[in-house]
Q: What sequence folds into this?
C-alpha cells in the first residue's frame, strides 16, 4: 500500500506505518533539520519545501495520506458556504486540496488535543465537515471520519501525551474505524527510569545556580507542584532545549561523579536519546543534528507506537489494505 506523508518532521508517524509494513512514496517538511534527520534514517523520499507551494499533482499517487498538520486560527470559519469555505488561509486548506486531487482510500491526521475544543468545537467541526464532503474527480464522495484522543502511555511508552487523531476512510469503503485497544503499561517495569542512559555527559546536569528555579513551584499567584523522578514522563515539548520548570519538563536524579567534579548537581534533564525512546523511536534511529534540534524534533514528533497501532488497526479492518500490504 503506497502512502504519502505531510508535515513529516523527523518521521514518528511515518515510522509507525513503516513498522506495520506500508511503503512511503512521498514525504514533506519545511524544516531542513527535520528533513536531515528523516532522510538519514528513513530515506530520500522526503522533500524539503513549504506545503503552500506544493502542487497536488506533483505528489505521487498514493492510497493513504498521513500528516500531523499545524492548527492555525480558522478566522473565516462559518462565514462562507460551499466546499472548503471556512478553512481557506489555513494549512489544512492545503491538505484538503491534496486530498481532493488524489482521494486516497484513507487519511490519517494528527493534532494537539485542544483541537477538539478550539473555538468551542467549531474548528474541528469545520475540518470534519470538509472531509465528509470532499468530492474529487469521480474518485469518491467524501470520508467517514472517526476521531479520538490517544495517550502515548496507553501504547507502550512511559509518557503521558494526549493527541487527537482523525482517521478518515473513503465512503465507498464500507468500514468504520475503531480505536485500537489500550495496552496497559506496567509501571514497575516500563517507566521513565527504565529508559535512562548511563554515564551521561555532565552538560545535561543542572548547575547549583539554576536548580532552585527549576524546582520552584511557581511565581506570584500561580502554583504548580514541581516534581522530578516521575514514573510516567510529562509530555515532551519542542522547547525542551530552553529548560522549563520541573512542573513542565522532565528531570531525574542520577548521581554522577563526573557531574559533581564539573560543579554540577546530581539532577539532570533528559538526553535527546532518552526523548527518542519516550517517543518510541528505535535505538538504531541515529541523531544527526544538534541537541537543540533533536529536542525540538522529538518534542514535535508523533509517538511511533501510537502510529503503528493505528496502522495495524487499518490493516485489520480493510481487506484491500491487507492484500496490498502483503504483496
A:
Amino acid at each position: 500500500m503506497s502512502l504519502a506523508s505531510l508535515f513529516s518532521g523527523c518521521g514518528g508517524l511515518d515510522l509507525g506505518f513503516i513498522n506495520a509494513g506500508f511503503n512511503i512514496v512521498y514525504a514533506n517538511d519545511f524544516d531542513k533539520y527535520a528533513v536531515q534527520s528523516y532522510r538519514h534514517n528513513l530515506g530520500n523520499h522526503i522533500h524539503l519545501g513549504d506545503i503552500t507551494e506544493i502542487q497536488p499533482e506533483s505528489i505521487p499517487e498514493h492510497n493513504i495520506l498521513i500528516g500531523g498538520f499545524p492548527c492555525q486560527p480558522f478566522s473565516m470559519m462559518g462565514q462562507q458556504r460551499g466546499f472548503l469555505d471556512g478553512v481557506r488561509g489555513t494549512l489544512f486548506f492545503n491538505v484538503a486540496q491534496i486530498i481532493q486531487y488524489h482521494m486516497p482510500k484513507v487519511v490519517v491526521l494528527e493534532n494537539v488535543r485542544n483541537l477538539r475544543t478550539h473555538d468551542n468545537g467549531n474548528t474541528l467541526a469545520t475540518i470534519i465537515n470538509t472531509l465528509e464532503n470532499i468530492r474529487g474527480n469521480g474518485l469518491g464522495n467524501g470520508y467517514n471520519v472517526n476521531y479520538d484522543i490517544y495517550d502515548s502511555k496507553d501504547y507502550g511508552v512511559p509518557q503521558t501525551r494526549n493527541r487527537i487523531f482523525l482517521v478518515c476512510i473513503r465512503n465507498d469503503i464500507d468500514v468504520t474505524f475503531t480505536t485500537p485497544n489500550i495496552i496497559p503499561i506496567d509501571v514497575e517495569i516500563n517507566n521513565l527510569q527504565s529508559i535512562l542512559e548511563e554515564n551521561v555527559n555532565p552538560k545535561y546536569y543542572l548547575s547549583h545556580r539554576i536548580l532552585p528555579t527549576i524546582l520552584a513551584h511557581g511565581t506570584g499567584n500561580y502554583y504548580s507542584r514541581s516534581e522530578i523522578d516521575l514514573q510516567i514522563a510529562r509530555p515532551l515539548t519542542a522547547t525542551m532545549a530552553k529548560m522549563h520548570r520541573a512542573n513542565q519538563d522532565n528531570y531525574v536524579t542520577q548521581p554522577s561523579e563526573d557531574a559533581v567534579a564539573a560543579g554540577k548537581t546530581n539532577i539532570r534533564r533528559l538526553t535527546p536519546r532518552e526523548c527518542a525512546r519516550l517517543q518510541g523511536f528505535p535505538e538504531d534511529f541515529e541523531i544527526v543534528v544538534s541537541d537543540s534540534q533533536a529536542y525540538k524534533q522529538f518534542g514535535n514528533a508523533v509517538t511511533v507506537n501510537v502510529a503503528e497501532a493505528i496502522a495495524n488497526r487499518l490493516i485489520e479492518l480493510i481487506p484491500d489494505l491487507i492484500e496490498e500490504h502483503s504483496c
Notes: Residues 192-288 form a domain with the DNA Methylase; Chain A, domain 2 fold (CATH 3.90.120.10). The longest helix spans residues 304-317. The radius of gyration is 21 Å. The chain is about 30% helix and 15% strand.
